[in-house]
Fold:
Amino acid sequence: MGYEGFIDIVEKQLADLRESQGETVKAAARLIAESIMKGGIVQSFGSGHSRVGSSEFCIRAGGLIPAKEMYFPNSTKYEMVEGVGTRFMEHADIRPEDVFVVTSFSGRNPLSIEVAMCAKEKGVKVIAITSVENSRKLSSRHSSGRHLYDLADVVLDIKGEFGDAAVSLPGLEEKVCATSTITTTVLTVSTVLEAISIMLEAGFVPPVYMSSNVDGGPEYNERLVREYSGRLFRV
Structure:
């Protein structure tokens, strides 16, 4: 299979998500819109390659300014170690008006599970971006036996092939070409779009990043970021 076949696979997956995830995208968007209109922020976390999807919420042209990535260095190394996520979240600045997004394709590793657990304990709504079918086929690596989807108020299901990689090639045992980064990004941006639309319909104009590569963009962003700097630039 050449690259055209891979694009065909991605197109089919996106068509499936368009049909199956519409209501959950809108539900997640409502949580985000309500949070920001109450003065909260979006807090986003992902480990390993799931961090790519998580970072799409934050500091992105056309994206929401009140959004912060909870970055854990070397997360791939520690995501299977129980207790790390709980310790990481001990001093996190999470407030009841916030909303927390946790991204994990497998949804089985302790780091993401504990981040979601701690967010729930702090009283915030949790949105999970995960593959429910894949997760159900895998045992949890957390002693609670729970998966990420068990902890979420809304689950955005990215689906995908078992193990994420989607293309088989002659002479190679392992599949290649993971798709979750693409599907996660599409669902993430779609959710942000819906949230912005909800806020505008409610008469609330949300602060949105202008591209820093457009003349005047850095100055425009600086004025809006200043309002949230006390939340965005602390753990």
